[in-house]
Specification:
- The chain is mainly β.
- The chain has one domain.
- It is about 0% helix and about 50% strand.
- It is built from no helices and five strands.
- The strands form two sheets. It has a three-stranded antiparallel β-sheet, with no helix packed on it. A two-stranded antiparallel sheet has the order 2-3.
- A hairpin with a 2-residue loop joins strand 4 and strand 5.
- The radius of gyration is 13 Å and the shape is globular.
- The mean pLDDT is about 85.
């Protein structure tokens, strides 16, 4: 699988956006990929894996 989260978190949509469209500027980056996921559990941590390898990216489910 190309990308995934652990524990499992369904990716519902992906899109390539300009770095200027992000919350934080990504200087030196040509593009940013925005992932829209299924609902996350508040407080749970989800590790992001890309091409089978765990990255330094982690998201934590937030309460609405």
């Amino acid at each position: 699988m190309f990308l995934r989260f652990e524990p499992e978190l369904e990716v519902k949509h992906t899109e390539i956006i300009n770095p200027e469209e992000t919350f934080e500027r990504h200087t030196g980056t040509d593009m940013v990929v925005r992932l829209t996921t299924a609902e996350q559990s508040a407080g749970d941590s989800y590790w992001f894996y890309y091409q089978g390898k765990r990255t330094d990216n982690i998201i934590v489910g937030a309460e609405e």
